[in-house]
Amino acid sequence: MTYVFAQEWDRERKRLAGIEAAADLISSDVLARLGVGPGWRCAEVGAGGGSLARWLADRVGDTGQVVATDLDPGYLKAIETPNVQVLQHDLTVDDRPGEPYDLVHTRLVIEHLPDPVGAVTRLAGWVRPGGWLVVEAGDWSTRYEITSSEVFDAVLVAVQKFLASAGFAPMFGRRLPVLFRDHGLVDVDCEARSRMLRGGTPEMEFFTLTIERARTAMVAADLISDDDVAAALTLCADPSFAVMSPALVSAWGRVDGPPG
Fold first, then answer.
1. What is the pLDDT of residue 145?
2. Which one of 103, 126, 159, 196 counts the least CB within 10 Å of its CB?
3. Threshold 0.85, pTM exceeds
4. Quick one: three-class SS letters along 5-35?
5. More confident residue, 12 or 109
6. Domains of the chain from N-terminus onward
7. Is a pLDDT exceeding 80 seen at residue 8?
8. pLDDT, the chain, mean
9. Residue 71: helix, strand or coil by DSSP?
C-alpha cells in the first residue's frame, strides 16, 4: 500500500492545516475532558503538522512530556518546545518509543494503515495501567451537502473510491468503540462530530486539497472527469457554498489497573 498524502507534495502542509482548522477544536475538547494536565506523559502518534502536539505540550507543562511521532516528521521539526520530543516512527513495525504513557492519541491515521485493527492493539499496549487511549477516525457516510451539488457529491464519491483503492477505510471510525471493548479497555466512550465547512475558508482546505491531490489519479482511473473536478474545486472556493464534513469519530478508553 502506498500512502496517498506523502509530504513530498508541495501543498501537503496546507492540506494538513485545513484538517487542523476543522478538527483541532473537536480533538482538544475530548482530550481536555479526559483531564490531560501537568505532569502527564503523552504520545501523539502520526502528529502531522504538530498542532495537537503543541496543544498537549501547553497542557502538560514543564513537568510533563509529549512524544510526537510520524512516518515523516519533517513538519514537526519546527517545534522547539523543550517538553516535546519528535521521533520518526512507523506504527506498523516499530516498538513503542520509551516507557508507557498516560495518554496515547492519534487522529486520522489508522484508517490509512493496512491493518488498522492491529494498530489499535499496538497503541493499547503503549498505555500504562490507568492511562487513556484516544483514537479518532473518520466516518465518511455522514458527509452531506448543505448547498446541494450533484457534481460535488460525485467528486467526493470518486475521492472515496480512489482512496479505498489505496487501502483507505472510509467508515473505520464507527468500529472504534467495539474494538476498544474487545481490547479490554474500560470506561469506553465515543462521540461523532461534524462541522460545517464554508467555501473559501481554511477549514475547506481539507476538501479542496484532498480533491486536488487525488485529481490526476482519479481522472486517469476514469472515476470522474477533469471538468467535474474543476467544478467541485470552484465550489470549494465559493463563500456561498457549504458542506458538512465527514464525522470525526472520537473513541476513548482506559487501560484497567491502578496507575503505575
1. 72
2. 196
3. yes
4. CCCCCCCHHHHHHHHHHHHHHHHHHHHHHCC
5. 109
6. 12-254 (3.40.50.150)
7. no
8. 92
9. coil
